[in-house]
Amino acid sequence: MKIPLARIAHARSGDKGDTSNIGIIAFDARHYPLLVREVTSERVKHFFGEMVRGEVERYELPNLGALNFLLHEALGGGGTLSLRIDAQGKTLGAALLRMEIDVAQEELG
Amino acid sequence: MIRIANGQGFWGDWLEAPVRLVEQGPIDYLALDYLAEITMSILQKQKEADPNLGYARDFPPLIARIQRRLIEREVKVIANAGGVNPIACAREVLRLAPSLKVAVVTGDNVFGRLDEFLAAGHAMKNMDTGEPLSAIRDRILSANAYIGAFPLAEALALGADVVIAGRCTDTALSLAPMIHRFGWKPEEWDKLAAGTIAGHIVECGAQSTGGNCQVDWQNIPDFANIGYPIIEADHEGRFSITKHEGTGGRVSADIVKEQLLYELGDPKNYIMPDCVADFTSIQLKDSGPDRVQVSGIRGAARPEMLKLSIAYSYGWKAIGTLVYSAPQALEKSKAADRIVRERLRQLGLKFEEIYTEFFGVNACHGPVAVPNPDPPEVQLRIGVRGQDRKAVDRFTRELIPLVLSGPPTGTGFGEGRPQAREVVAYWPALIPRELIQTSVQVVE
User: Distance between CA A63 and CA B282 in Å, rounded?
Assistant: First the structure.
C-alpha cells in the first residue's frame, strides 16, 4: 500500500550554499530499513523534479534511524544570491514528507 | 560535570534568551553565536566607516545587562561577537562592565594577508566551483579563517570572564570550556569529537529544545518561554542535553536527532578545525524529563587545512511583490508576471536571472506543492539579479504600475517599490593551517 513518508518519519532541512540538506528520521527504529529501501536518491530527485538541478546524494545513519540527503543546486543559487522566499530550503523537509512510499501492512508492525 | 548553555543561535536571535539562562538556573558557561557567513562582510564595511565598529553591537549591552549575575554565579561567557574588530568589542564591553576580565582571540582575520597567500602559491579555489580566488580578488570584502576551540580555551585559562573571538567555528564556543576544564589534549580525537557534536546540537539555540520541530509541534509546551539548550558534560566526553526546569519547549531524542541532521553533509566526516567527528557513532537516549543522554562518539585527526570564509561583492538584486485576490487569483498573477517580463524585454534590460514565485501557491514547495484550484489570494513575487545596478533599479519601478494598467484586483503595494540591494556572495576556500597564527590577550 502507499503511505506518505510522514507516517513513519520526521524531517529537518537546511542549507550549505546552493545545496539543501534534508534529514529524514524514522519515528520507530524498526522502520529504518523501510526508509533505506524506499527513499532512494533517485526517488528524491524525481520527487522534486525541476526544483533540484544537480545530483541528490544520500548518507545513512543507522544509529539514529536516519538518512541525510544532499540536494545539489536546489536553492536558486543559495545564500544571498537566491531569489527564492525559502532560500535556505527550510521547508523542503516538510515537502519530502509528503512523498508516497510503498510498504506492506505487516512491515509497519 | 560542567554546564554549558547556548543563548544565541545567530545574530538576531531572541534577546531575552541569554538573560534567562543566567537567571533561571545553574550554568557554568554561556556560549553565544553571532556570526553567519555573510555577517563578516557587513561588519567589515562598518569598520571601514568607523574604526571603532565591526563587531556584533548587541553583545556589549547584553553583557552590561547580565554582568552582576555573571559575577555572582561565576558564569563565563564565550562569544564570536568580535566580528572583524574583537578588540573594539572588548573595549566597549569594558566601558559598560568595567569589573569584568575580558580576553580576545585574534588571528582569524586574513583580509590583509590574501596577497601574501596568493604570492606564496595558495590559489584559495572556491570549494564549490573550483575557480581560483584571483578571479574575484578586487571584489573581496572580508576574509577570515575558521579557527577552533584551543585558543578560546587558552583565553579561559587566563581567567577571563568574557572571551571574545572573531570567526571561530560555532561548535568551538561549546568545546572550549570542555578543553579548558577537563584538560583535553589536541590528539584526544574522540573527546574533541564529542565536544564538537555537543556544540553542533546547541549551536542553533532553541532548535534543540523544541523550536522548528516537526514531531508533535502542536503539543510542545510554552514556546513563548522556551528554554535554550544546556550541555552537561563530563571529562570523558559523555554528555546530556537539557534545559532549565520550568521553561517552555521540550528536549527529546527525536528533537536532538533533527538538530543533529541540520546542515549536515557527510555524517562520517564532519570536518572541524580541531577534529573530524563521526555522526554515525552517536548513541542517544531519552534519560529523563527534558533530558537526552549522548555517548559513544568517535573522532579522527584534525584536517591539515583550515576553511576560509571569504565574502565578495557579486552584484545586485531586488524582489518585488503584488497581491491579486480571487477569483482567478493565480491566473491574474501569471498574467501580471508576463506583462512585467515583456516590459523588461522591451527595455532591453539584461539580468542573470528573473525568478517568479506565486506565494500561496508554490513559493515554498515549488512543483510538489499541493494544488489549490481557487486560492483566495496570491502574492506575485518577482526577483531579479544581475551585475548592472541600473537595470535592477529600473525593474523596481515595473510592478506598481500594473495596479492601474494590468489584471483586476491588484493590491498590496503599500510598502512602495522594492529596493535594489547589493549581493554579497560567499567564497569557501582552504588554507594550510600553519599559516593561521592565533593570539590571545587580556584587554585592559
Answer: 7
User: Structural domain boundaries of chain B?
Assistant: 2-108+146-303, 312-423
A16, A25, A64: residue with CB nearest B265: A16
Question: Tens digits of per-residue pLDDT, B336-389?
Answer: 999 999 999 999 999 999 999 999 999 999 999 999 989 999 999 999 999 999
What is the value of ipTM here, to two decimals?
0.98
> Contact B206/A85 with Cβ under 8 angstroms?
no
Q: Which residues of chain B have a CB within 8 Å of the CB of A4?
A: none
Q: Which of B214, B281, B355 sits opposite A83 (nearest CB)?
A: B355
Is A14 part of the contact surface with chain B (CB cutoff 8 Å)? yes
DSSP assignment of A32-85, as one string? Answer: HHHHHHHS-HHHHHHHHGGG--S-EEEEEEGGGTEEEEEETT-STT-TTT--ST
Contact A15 B359 (CB under 8 A): no
pTM over 0.90: yes
Q: Which domain holds residue A22?
A: 2-108
CA distance A92 to A74: 10
Distance between first and last Cα of chain A: 14
Which chain A residues are within 8 Å of B170, Cβ to Cβ? none
Per residue, the 3-state secondary structure of B271-310, as one string, reads ECCCCEEEHHHCEEEEEECCEEEEECCEEECCCCEEEEEE
pLDDT at residue number B413: 85
Asked if B136 contacts B312 with a C-beta cutoff of 8 angstroms, the reply is yes
Q: Which of A80, A82, A97 is the best mutation test for B, with the most CBs of B within 10 A?
A: A80
Total of domains in chain A: 1
Beta strand pairing status for A2-4 and A100-102?
antiparallel
C-alpha cell at B405: 494598467
Which cell goes with B256? 536532538
Topology (CATH) of B312-423: Alpha-Beta Plaits (3.30.70)
d(CA B143, CA B127): 15
Q: Is A58 in CB contact (< 8 Å) with chain B? A: no
